[in-house]
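Progress against Task 2.4 (sequence-to-structure conversion) is shown through the following example record, which the project officer requested during the mid-term review.
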Amino acid sequence: MENTAEMKFSKSHEWVLFDGDKVRIGLSDYAQDQLGDIVFIDLPDEGDEVIKGESFADIESVKAVSEAYSPITATVSAINEELMDSPELINSAPLESWLIEVEGVEEIEDLLSADEYKKFCEESEEA
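Structure tokens generated for the chain above:
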């Protein structure tokens, strides 16, 4: 999924893809690159609520344990079970390896387009 034109991004480095009734959330390529080799992921349960700006997943890499923050408020309708056994898929295909699927989406303000997000990452590296 090299085409990121339909994706939106958060400043905490998660991506959001709206696809009809489905909304998927994953880690950006920038985030996985900063984390290094991902070895474990802890995701919420189906039915859990995720709240914009709050942590919804723990991600352990060889470098550190980090959190993923929800870019929107919604209810978890599915988790990517494949990542539970193979979290390294996030490193090899971050834009295909969604973490959670949500419904009942609220608070979608502040999401960046792919171009805006790229500029944000470039400015972050320069600082």
